[in-house]
Design brief:
InterPro entries: LysR_HTH_N (IPR000847), LysR_subst-bd (IPR005119), WH-like_DNA-bd_sf (IPR036388), WH_DNA-bd_sf (IPR036390)
Shape: elongated
GO cellular component, one term: protein-DNA complex
Family: Belongs to the LysR transcriptional regulatory family.
Keywords: DNA-binding, Transcription, Transcription regulation
Largest sheet: 5 strands, mixed
Pfam families: HTH_1, LysR_substrate
Strand content: 15-25%
Number of domains: 3
CATH topology of the largest domain: D-Maltodextrin-Binding Protein, domain 2
């Protein structure tokens, strides 16, 4: 019996009973007037009686149609209520996993998120951007369940679930900078470049790798201003306010005509890492780490 019920026809009849006008009914349902007529005729065929009387001057319900409407309205309302209640309960049972990222959601991470959600239907992943200059704060304070951050990671209360995307470090420069036409820059030449420092709570060991104050040889690197996020830093670079060290993935996913990326030799390669609070470790996080490992393999 359920297979004989077409809810498009039911909805169309209920709206037509309110409007008593085929054109306005079509507008509300976002279908053509002829489609409204088709749905009503089909419903009348299923019921076995005329529900609507239509003349060139007016539309009204037949006596049978009025009786049908009186019985149908509360039943349809109850059905809609049951459906909405079920959908609400289904949403409340979804387990949400919050993954932090710095600057951009790189393609391997995006693929991993899709695969992870497909394999774990009760789980939905929320993406949360975290400051470039504060890689561990959101994880430590519970703002996210895990985060993909730049290495190194030497935090005793955090678990390093996976490292990936090992690439040479790259210097983001204004396209008008004298070094913008170079194929590469040596690490000691950073002393001739004014860097935009990262203004946040990143530990000193992390800063020395990702926003160094001195070259490997000990020469001081000039610094001016400060940036909290990657986009803020790149905006300062584009305005000629300094240069910014970024990982290879950031350079690849943040192409713009006013910024040039030049590889830097003589520095440790950059890597990304998935980290979470050791105390909050759970099967969902380890499962996500496994999926991400598959994706970047």
């Amino acid at each position: 019996m359920a297979r004989e019920i077409d809810f498009h026809e039911i909805e169309c009849f209920l709206v037509l009973a309110e409007e008593l006008h085929f054109g306005r009914t079509g507008e509300r349902l976002r279908v053509s007037q002829s489609r409204v007529s088709q749905l009503i005729r089909s419903l009348e065929g299923r019921v076995g009686a005329r529900l609507v009387e239509r003349t060139s001057r007016r539309v009204r319900l037949s006596e049978f149609g009025a009786d049908f409407l009186e019985s149908l309205r509360p039943s349809y309302g109850a059905l809609v209520s049951v459906f909405e209640d079920a959908r609400s309960r289904a949403r409340s049972t979804v387990e949400r996993v919050r993954i932090g990222f710095q600057g951009a959601v790189y393609e391997p991470l995006a693929r991993a998120l899709t695969v992870f959600e497909r394999r774990n239907p009760p789980v939905a992943v929320d993406l949360v951007e975290i400051p470039l200059a504060d890689p561990f704060g959101a994880v430590r304070e519970g703002g996210v369940d895990a985060a993909v951050v730049l290495t190194p990671v030497r935090e005793p209360d955090l678990t390093l679930g996976l490292t990936f995307s090992r690439q040479p470090q790259t210097l983001a420069l204004s396209s008008s900078h004298p070094f913008a036409g170079r194929e590469e820059i040596g690490a000691e030449e950073l002393a001739r470049v004014r860097l935009v420092p990262l203004a946040g709570r990143a530990p000193a060991y992390w800063r020395q790798v990702n926003s160094p104050r001195v070259t490997p040889g000990g020469a001081r690197i000039p610094q001016e201003g400060g940036a909290v996020t990657l986009q803020e830093g790149l905006s300062l670079v584009a305005a000629g306010r300094g240069a910014l060290l970024v990982c290879g993935a950031a350079a690849e996913y943040n192409r713009r005509p006013d910024v040039t990326y030049v590889p830097v030799t003589g520095l440790a390669a950059s890597e990304l890492a998935l980290v979470w609070r050791t105390a909050a470790r759970g099967s969902r996080l380890t499962a996500f780490a496994a999926v991400l490992a598959e994706t970047v393999a």
